[in-house]
Automatic annotation (TrEMBL):
Function of the molecule: Functions as a ribosomal silencing factor. Interacts with ribosomal protein uL14 (rplN), blocking formation of intersubunit bridge B8. Prevents association of the 30S and 50S ribosomal subunits and the formation of functional ribosomes, thus repressing translation.
Name under which the protein is recorded: Ribosomal silencing factor RsfS
Keywords: Cytoplasm, Repressor, Translation regulation
Similarity section: Belongs to the Iojap/RsfS family.
GO annotation (BP), single: negative regulation of ribosome biogenesis
Record flagged with keyword Repressor: yes
Subunit and interaction comment: Interacts with ribosomal protein uL14 (rplN).
Compartments in which it is found: Cytoplasm
UniProt source species: Kribbella capetownensis
Amino acid sequence: MPASDRAIELLTAAAEAAHDKKAENVLAFDVSEQLAITDAFLVASASNDRQVRAIVDAVEEKLRIDFDAKPVRREGAREGRWVLLDYLEIVIHVQHDEERSFYSLERLWRDCPAIPLPSPIPSAE
């Protein structure tokens, strides 16, 4: 069974929040056929620890305000290198570029269908 409509809504909102904080290479995967514990993964990266934390904060705020959703688990926030937010329906991974390159989650989950996400809106800088 593919990712639920709610999972897609949460992913889309999280991706928008991540893009607002200049997240790079934001991808989503439907892992519902491979994992029983969640429907989808969102993966995003940033070039420094501070930006990783800013992305995580923006995603949490967006999902809390728009969907009354709070993560049931939050790991790695102190270090700011790889933060995992578990919302049950979705799991969000925000990684420092170095961790993203080393662990290559998109390679690990390449057999899972990609979920289309909205493109980032260019800023007027």
